[in-house]
Design a protein that fits this description.
Blueprint: E1 12-16, H1 20-32, E2 37-41, H2 44-53, E3 58-62, H3 72-81, E4 90-95, H4 100-108, E5 113-116, H5 121-137, H6 139-146, H7 150-163, H8 168-181, H9 185-198, H10 202-214, H11 218-231, H12 236-248, H13 252-265, H14 270-282, H15 286-300, H16 309-320, H17 324-340, H18 345-361, H19 365-376, H20 386-401, H21 409-420, H22 424-432, H23 438-463, H24 467-481, H25 484-496, H26 504-518, H27 533-542
Parallel strand pairs: 1-2, 1-3, 3-4, 4-5
């Protein structure tokens, strides 16, 4: 036995390989390196479950699984997109396919190394030694990230980047992701661009595109992505980002096509199938939506990589098709998910929505109305977010389609519009939940027009040299509507004109309180990761 390093005797490892001989050989190599606890699995789905609930110091994963729709790439992409693959874990992809495309995919998935079969024990040793040394070099950064101190981690990355300290490129990659997560795209862009100057790495170019998009420069982001995809047409992550850009530019059909391409490259990716299903649902492609969501559900409805909003939309499609058995399965799956996070308001509302759909399908009108009014009573709650608003409008629309009338329904729709119509994209998505209901469509349009008028009034006050009046007007409208666009505009006005606003500290505190409680931007279609209470609950237990 020749130990990898002095810390290896405390390590755990997971070997994922369908071939029992290869799996046994890899496990034997790890034991020869000094790893005392090696878990083996032959299936990617079993590996996903293990990685969702346990921590491993080393993961060796085969690319190809002949009897499964999921590849090793799909598995690791899903875990990475769901933030379920710790930075401290060394991940090595192993494949018998030496084609450039697969090698590039492995490199882009934030893996620590890849190996092409046949490989030697020494080759594996070298990869593991290098990766573990790098992890130790970055251990202060990794500790911050894994404890949830993203700002502390970003600042450590920034210091390593500024001084070109050990492994500064890897620190910059982590730092770029953290600055994006913290809403600092300009800091992230400097890191990605510095990496590009020394090496033309596709992931760094994608990072630049993401910073451009987050900074509000969608046109530049699109150009960067088009150039990148022209050179790297197999880059699934780039299609994910392109979908977000195209949706915000008002091109939903092209956005859906971009996600189709991502799913085509990673057909076993649960997360990407759910995203495709969400977009297809809201943009009038129910057949494609139900196909994508059913496939995602079969692959891993109880997995933490499955965004449970997808289950709500799948249940809605099953209701619309009169599929009582399918809807019952969706209700049961949601019940099981809630058992893992019983205190989650998000999952409780999801369960209520599916329950209303089930009541409607079985003509239990009184029960459907009771549960719908429970949701209506929560519209002004701080944790009632955009997806909850979409689901509520979707229910109101289906109640009316079945001639179940709520007399005050248009008024409730107006309240939802005034709170959640923060942009053209969000207003359009809200409108798509009530297609074919003229009263509701008019209420949504009026609500969004009122928000736009309030913003324009405030801008006029500022242009006329009265920023205090602008803030007061915005604050008044924001307190009535809870609209995040108005809250943000008030905050930005205070920042730009602080020196000329009387009682600025008092006004700033009032705006900040609204911001902290009610700011809920974003679209219903989560083309980034939605926080899953099941993931958060298990993470809290593991700490």
């Amino acid at each position: 036995m020749r130990l990898l390093d002095e810390h290896i005797l405390n390590a755990t490892a997971l070997v994922v390989d369908a071939n029992p001989t290869s799996r046994s050989i890899l496990a034997g190599m790890l034991r020869d390196f000094g790893v005392p606890r090696v878990t083996q699995t032959s299936r990617a789905t079993e590996a996903r479950k293990a990685l969702e609930f346990r921590h491993f110091d080393i993961v060796l994963c085969e690319y190809h699984f002949p009897d499964e729709p999921m590849t090793g790439q799909d598995l690791l992409d899903d875990l990475r997109l769901a933030h379920l693959l710790p930075l401290s874990t060394v991940v090595v992809m192993i494949s018998s396919e030496a084609g450039y495309a697969h090698v590039a995919e492995a490199a882009e998935a934030a893996l620590d190394a890849y190996l092409i079969k046949p490989h030697t024990e020494q080759a594996l040793r070298e990869r593991l030694v290098q990766a573990r040394q790098r992890k130790r070099s970055l251990r202060d950064i990794i500790a911050c990230v894994e404890s949830g101190d993203f700002l502390g981690g970003a600042e450590l990355c920034q210091a390593r980047f500024d001084t070109h300290g050990p492994n500064w490129v890897h620190a910059a990659r982590i730092g770029g992701e953290l600055w994006l997560r913290l809403g600092k795209p300009h800091a992230a862009q400097k890191m990605f661009e510095a990496i590009l100057k020394i090496r033309a790495l596709p992931w760094a170019r994608l990072g630049v595109a993401r910073t451009e998009y987050e900074a509000g420069r969608a046109f530049q982001a699109r150009r960067t992505l088009e150039s990148l995809l022209g050179e790297q047409p197999g880059y699934a992550d780039a299609y994910d980002v392109m979908g977000r850009v195209l949706l915000d530019q008002g091109e939903p059909d092209q956005a859906i096509d971009s996600l189709r391409r991502a799913c085509g490259l990673t057909p076993g990716s649960v997360a990407r199938l759910v995203k495709l299903g969400l977009l297809a649902f809201y943009y009038g492609k129910p057949s494609e939506a139900i196909d994508a969501l059913q496939k995602a559900s079969r692959l891993g409805v109880q997995s933490k990589v499955f965004d449970l909003q997808g289950l709500v939309l799948l249940g809605t499609l099953q209701h619309d098709a009169g599929d009582a058995r399918g809807l019952a399965r969706s209700v049961e799956s949601m019940l099981q998910a809630r058992e893992q996070a019983p205190d989650s308001p998000r999952l409780r509302r999801f369960q209520l929505v599916l329950g209303v759909l089930m009541h409607l399908l079985h003509r239990k009108v009184g029960d459907a109305l009771t549960d719908t009014r429970r949701l209506l009573a929560e519209v002004r709650e701080p944790d009632f977010e955009f997806e909850a608003a979409c689901n509520l409008l979707m229910l109101l629309s289906r109640l009316h389609l079945q001639e179940v009338r709520l007399e005050d329904a248009p008024s409730h729709v107006g309240v939802v519009a005034r709170r959640f119509a923060v942009s053209r994209t969000t207003a359009e998505l809200l409108g798509r939940t009530v297609r074919g209901q003229p009263e509701f469509e008019q209420a949504l349009q009026a609500g969004y027009a009122g928000i736009t008028a309030a913003a324009e009034e405030a801008v006029s006050h500022t242009v006329e040299g009265s920023p205090r009046e602008a803030v007061l007007a915005l604050l008044g409208h924001a307190q009535q509507t809870l609209n995040a666009k108005l809250i943000d505009l008030a905050s930005h006005t205070i920042e730009r004109h602080r020196g000329s606003i009387e009682e600025v500290a008092t006004l700033a505190a009032q705006v900040q309180e609204l911001h902290d409680r009610y700011r809920s931007y974003g679209t219903q279609v989560h083309l980034t990761r939605a926080e899953d209470p099941r993931t958060m609950a298990s993470a809290a237990r593991s700490r």
